[in-house]
Design brief:
- This protein has about 240 residues and is of the alpha/beta class.
- Helix content is about 25%, strand content about 25%.
- It has four helices and nine strands, in the order αβαββαβαβββββ.
- It has helices at about 5-20, 65-80, 120-130, 145-160, and strands at about 55-60, 85-90, 110-115, 135-140, 160-170, 180-190, 200-210, 215-220, 225-230.
- It has a nine-stranded mixed beta sheet.
- Helix 3 runs parallel beside helix 4.
- The longest helix is centred in the N-terminal third of the chain and has 19 residues, at about 5-20.
């Protein structure tokens, strides 16, 4: 016997899917799905899967936070590299390529481009996002206007490439057209019981904005080439509401 609550739940899920489809958030096919190892964080996303073919914006305000952000981004990037090479663009190279092996990335899979300015870097990023042969494009810029971010978002909607934009800035960022905005800050490393030395990286990962999703914050660790969500229950961020 089918209960009324089940009928309402099915109707709600159908309506939610239709709304997402109308807004361009079609459910990914089996071939497009990629397990990122983000555990309960997936529940914050539309269709409960990490949004590919989109531009994700990462904000940091200190050198320490910038390093933590790069580490988290590398973990995500490692899950995308099965498709091919990655383009990494910035005004100066901040990443030590051999360190990418910790995230399961072979350094020779990454094409590093050092631009002379943010304007030039954004041009390279946009052109890279138009190239369907890449697995992803990482961009490190400070300035990102709404118009520029909209151009990047339009590019990925056609090429189906995923873009990760990291902005290490001192002031609060303005509005952009990026699908999601993240903030990663370092936490004390986690050691294995009885083991000396530096432990596994640990971060506070905040999903500040996610279109048609649920913002929240989690404690995330990187252990043995994989994410571990230490706090399975999302931590609400004061003053931040669900965005549509």
């Amino acid at each position: 016997m089918i209960k009324g609550s089940d009928i309402r739940r099915d109707a709600f899920q159908k309506l939610r899917k239709e709304l997402l489809d109308w807004q361009g958030f079609r459910a990914p096919t089996y071939a497009e799905r990629r397990e990122m190892g983000l555990g309960q964080i997936n529940k914050a996303f539309p269709n409960e899967v990490f949004p590919l073919s989109a531009v994700h914006e990462f904000i940091s305000h200190t050198k320490e936070a910038a390093a933590a952000t790069s580490g988290f981004m590398a973990g995500i990037l490692g899950a995308l590299m099965h498709k091919g090479a990655c383009l990494w663009v910035g005004t100066r190279q901040m990443i030590f390529p051999p360190a990418l092996k910790v995230a399961g990335i072979n350094p020779d899979q990454v094409i590093f481009v050092n631009a002379l300015s943010d304007k030039e870097a954004l041009w390279v990023i946009e052109e890279g996002l138009k190239c369907g042969g890449l697995a992803a494009v990482v961009g490190e810029v400070k300035d990102l206007s709404f118009t520029a971010s909209r151009r990047l978002q339009l590019a990925v909607e056609k090429s189906r490439i995923t873009g990760l934009i990291h902005r290490n800035i001192e002031i609060a960022p303005g509005n952009t057209a990026c699908l999601a905005r993240w903030k990663v800050t370092p936490l004390a490393s986690v050691k294995e019981d009885g083991m000396p030395g530096v432990g596994f990286p640990s971060w506070r990962v905040e999903l500040i904005k996610i279109r048609n999703g649920r913002p929240g914050a989690w404690q995330v660790q990187w252990m043995d080439k994989g994410f571990v969500i230490a706090a399975e229950k999302p931590v609400a961020i004061p003053g931040i509401k669900r965005t549509g």
